[in-house]
Amino acid sequence: MACNLQTSFLPALKFPAEATLDKRRGNGLVVCSVASAADSIMTESTPTGSAAVVRSRPLSRREVETSERKMTDTTGKFGRFGGKFVPETLMTCLSKLEAEFNLVLHDPEFQEELATALRDYVGRETPLYFAQRLTDHYKNESGCGPEIYLKREDLNHGGAHKINNAIAQAMIAKRMGRKSIVAATGAGQHGVATAAACAKLSLKCTIVMGTLDMERQASNVLLMKLLGAEVKSVDGNFKDATSEAIREWVGNLETNYFLIGTAVGPHPCPSMVREFQSIIGKETRRQAMERWGRKPDVLVACVGSGSNALGLFHEFIADEDVRMIGVEAAGFGLESGKHSATLAKGEVGVYHGAMSYLLQDEEGQIVGPHSIGVGMEYPGVSPELSFLKERGRVESYSVTDQEAVDAYQLLCRLEGIFPALEASHALAFLDKLCPTLPDGAKVVVNCSGRGDKDAPTVFRLTQGSSPGDHKRHPVSP
């Protein structure tokens, strides 16, 4: 039976022992006594609607090791991050989803069906492409430098890594008897992937998208509609679309399935997305061993909220000799206030049902993110990436809008490949990374999506200028 959203009571917030509450406003953190299920999963709130804020002290080595041992999917916690910060109304639904997820992980029939879909429908495996001209571009005066490889997720059906997760979750939804899929999208790649998966499996599909993103990603909106999806617009961008999609989901929990596209939200959502994206790293390891007989030295991926980065990184977390670099969107600069660099500038809090780093102001209000890469505009980040960054396993850096645009043009002209503006952030960091690496080091960059969707934006901003020629045609606020 569908829950009554208007009379749901919000449970009190409980934070891990490692965290301390910031006692602003004189009374610490006070949770609203009454809220709808939809609103409470969107942000555990104070009476003024702010996100829960946690000020953290540095963890000792012993605490880090203890947290690492506790980092299991069964608890939904990654150290102090993750969890289920949701009202009781949603706990049963999430528990059923977790049980089904754990079942399909060990179900040979499901795994065979998924492997067939990934091979014959998605088009896996994707190539590990040696970017010869890009490699030559970054060689020093002595002709030395790292070798650069691209994991070509842009060649998947739908043009991005998103289909890996979408097809798997759509199959789970059908097993659970759900008839209607609800999803939110920013850049549109998850929306296209979900619409395609629903068309294949004969499921009703509703995609929620912010009006700002619909204008910037018009080609993907058209594709979603051609695939039979209903596209609903909401004022704002990806974070607003996610909130509205959650409302749509909880409106009928018995028939709706919320197909989340990135590694955020309450458990088991982050673990599910990461699991279904981890095929990226598994293929990369195997391909690297075949190509040069050892693991990559450095992995680089853009970080919006975390799905493509974890997809590449997860296979190598235990390999301490493999550097893992996440590149966030610095927008107009980290000090400008217009960026999406959550790992670099965020603080710990609860949003959309889980604890992670968040972009928030001094009052704990969510700060609207900005990036020229639409898919990176989210104020939170994966709980697992939050944990890996805190323990020092993942390095985090950021690049500006202009640097991403330059990298987009550079790959187009050197390799004949259109990278998504999201993936262009990872490519842009090669400018800073390559001069620091020894000759012959193997660098794998996750080209998480194709960039024909972004070509109008890039051309409008550059008007045919050469990469790096941003003084004539700067990206403007």
Automatic annotation (TrEMBL):
<keyword id="KW-0822">Tryptophan biosynthesis</keyword>
<keyword id="KW-0057">Aromatic amino acid biosynthesis</keyword>
<dbReference type="InterPro" id="IPR006654">
    <property type="entry name" value="Trp_synth_beta"/>
</dbReference>
<keyword id="KW-0456">Lyase</keyword>
<keyword id="KW-0028">Amino-acid biosynthesis</keyword>
<feature type="domain" description="Tryptophan synthase beta chain-like PALP">
    <location>
        <begin position="123"/>
        <end position="449"/>
    </location>
</feature>
<dbReference type="GO" id="GO:0005737">
    <property type="term" value="C:cytoplasm"/>
</dbReference>
<dbReference type="InterPro" id="IPR023026">
    <property type="entry name" value="Trp_synth_beta/beta-like"/>
</dbReference>
<keyword id="KW-0663">Pyridoxal phosphate</keyword>
<dbReference type="InterPro" id="IPR006653">
    <property type="entry name" value="Trp_synth_b_CS"/>
</dbReference>
<feature type="region of interest" description="Disordered">
    <location>
        <begin position="456"/>
        <end position="477"/>
    </location>
</feature>
<dbReference type="InterPro" id="IPR036052">
    <property type="entry name" value="TrpB-like_PALP_sf"/>
</dbReference>
<protein>
    <recommendedName>
        <fullName>Tryptophan synthase</fullName>
        <ecNumber>4.2.1.20</ecNumber>
    </recommendedName>
</protein>
<comment type="pathway">
    <text>Amino-acid biosynthesis; L-tryptophan biosynthesis; L-tryptophan from chorismate: step 5/5.</text>
</comment>
<dbReference type="Pfam" id="PF00291">
    <property type="entry name" value="PALP"/>
</dbReference>
<dbReference type="InterPro" id="IPR001926">
    <property type="entry name" value="TrpB-like_PALP"/>
</dbReference>
<dbReference type="GO" id="GO:0004834">
    <property type="term" value="F:tryptophan synthase activity"/>
</dbReference>
